[in-house]
Specification:
Length: 299
Amino acid sequence: MEAMPKTSLMPVSVVIPSLNPNESLLRLIESLELQSFEYGQIIIVDQSPSLQSQLLIAGYSGRLREKIEVLQSTPGLAKSRNAGIGALRDGWEVVLVPDDDVRMDGDISESIRNAVREGSSAGSGRLCPENPNDRIRIDFPSSQVELTPRNVWRSSIEPCYFLTPGFIDKVGLYDESLGLGASSPWQSGEGTDLLLRGLKLGLSVAYVPGYALVEATRPPLSFAGNRRRLRKYARGTGRVFARNYSFIHQVLLIVRSLAKIVLQSTRGRKVFLENLEVLLGRFEGLTGSILWRNDGTRT
């Protein structure tokens, strides 16, 4: 993949993985309209058999309508992002990979342009909840930082990634055995794994706070549903640690999980069980073996 020469407007393409999309997808497209980019392709990778995204886009008449393409993919965030990136034609300098339930918070184009001009081959912005009373998933830094294996978990999140052709040429695409919707038990971590692979090759990867996305409010999960989600995501974290970190760092991951259970032991049974799911999931990911399902059944 070859990037275009530098122009006044950065040439950008967008890949949007989508599963059961709703009006949030249109809000994302509308927020793309506000950016100072020269858009190539905007590819929606629909993972549903009904291609609901086509129906939503059919009624969209904004200036980017002619840039929008819809591809169909089997389920899996990593698989759908790979399919979208693989369908891009040459001529883009950056690809954004937002989820279909986020939107750009203002004009973020200058922040990404500056990071790439300063030598970053990939990076992440920050994700903010739509409702300010909702819990922030990551307490992101307030200033731009270079990502390292130590801070990548606290300073990056998959929907906010930007990637350059040079990064993809050297690192490759997402590992499809990781992430939500994968056929494996490792239901998170595909993006962090991708950045870690780039860092191992000595590439510059940045956290860029000016690239901010707003995440739509999701319906709350039941207690049982939240425990299942925590366990699945923790398995992915453990798997990424097993692949990218030394044995001592893997041990520290388990120690931190145990310490959290102890330190929060006075917060009641609900918190204890949630923390226990995280501990078990991380252990399963590290060992590569599913020992105990969320329903209490041995496997």
